[in-house]
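Hi there, hope your week has been kind to you so far. Thanks so much in advance, here it is:
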Amino acid sequence: MNQLKKIMGVLWMILAPVVIYFLVMGAVHNINSAGTKDINKPIPWIIIIAIFTPIAIGLMIFGYYSVKGEYDKLPDSSNDL
């Protein structure tokens, strides 16, 4: 089970920056001053990127701690804390 946690940690650490990259590239590609749809306006893209960037950073931190082995021994009950 601990090996699976470490593999998933690496996956999260790789996936988080990739998702942010694709969000920013999608914004750059779709923002157009001549466009009339909502996807062509910068405000929705700014909101989306501002919401998902901290989530992705949190996933990277979670992955780092998982690879580091912080989640190898989890408490069984609150008495173990």
About this structure: The helical segments are 2-30, 42-68. The chain has a mean pLDDT of 90. DSSP finds two helices and no strands in the chain. The longest helix spans residues 2-30.
